[in-house]
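Escalated from tier 1: zinc ion holo job.
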Amino acid sequence: MKDILTNDTFAILPGKLFTGSDKKIKTDKAVIIEEKKIKDIVDTEDKDLSSKDIDVLKAPQKTLIPGLIDAHVHTYSNGEEKRGEYPAKALTGYLALRSFVNAREDLRAGFTFIRDCSSRRYVDVALKKAIETGELQGPKLMVSGHGLSMTGGHGDVSQFPNADINEDLAVCDTPGEARKQARRQLKMGADFIKLHATGGSFGNGAKPGAQQLTQKEMEAAIEEAHKAGKKAAAHAMGTEGMKAAVKAGVDSIEHGFWMTEEIAEMMRDKGTVFVPTLTPLYRNKTRGGYYDDEKVQKEFKSKAAEIREAHLKSFNLALNKGVTIACGSDSGGGPLLRHGENAIELKLMSEADMDNSEVLLSATKVNAELLGIESKVGQIKEGMLADLLLVEGNPLDDISILQDCDRLQVIKEGTLI
Ligand SMILES: [Zn+2]
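Tier 2 regenerated the structure:
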């Protein structure tokens, strides 16, 4: 055995191992990596291991877990800019560069795979390609292009009447237009279709969580996604729009504020996955929004705190009803939702009464299944890609240690980042 990593084949000997196949922690195991993939998991006493001329990374104080997956981010923004105006007025090249910087932050935070849940001018598609070819270093990506929205809806990001913005959006107002916009996203390289079933939580002039795309419009778009062997995700909060999205056959409900018992049961029975994104309202409540006016800021925070209470009820309802819960931070999706802080979502899920092992499974195996990449990543298993995270300490005892990047060593496809 050698002590330094000098070639493509090496072994990691962690103090603890969480493979993501079940809730258990294993000890005295070595994970052997060969050419980007996991070759084997053996006992540390294994004769072959000591006899082989193999590089070894010894980490007795650390836990080895699968690389984390974030099922809901927006790479084009880091939550620092006023959402509506900034991206619409920014140069496409600038958005692409920001996308790269933000995605790299996600990777540094231990997220080796991210799902970009709607972008601008296809910078997500371009970023994915540049990372896949190895031109840029970043996490693996699943991208959606533009999210489909009704005119003036949550994804109609020009949003301002008479705005001097000529952005090519996926706005649709009939089932035929929804079908066409879904086909356009797929043509441009989308891996899944994002739908805006409802408005946002704060309403912005309309009723918070009011339904936007109709069930028939969503059905047409979802049919196109499924025909192409891809999935569809719906931004949905508020009863009617969420129900319509589930009935239309969407694969995941994002956010899900104001979920009802009926919807939770429908989701469980249909296998619709819930991506709660607990981070945004927590950040809104604690950090506030973009407002300079102190009074407005205070009102925003207290409104967020109120909606958060309802959201936590939705989360617990889904948990108790047995809905599959995936993990997404919505980094970049709102004010002060910064990339690189994604792991707070795991802590918030834990604080909302989800068992730590379930939370870890949610951010690994369950997310991989939602994204349809479970044969490649999400578990530490023979034949899987070596996307791994070495964590100082044991995240099953204290999940918040994942928020400290200094305690993490990220390995993407067998390469230490
Ligand atoms: Zn989002």
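The chain has a mean pLDDT of 92.
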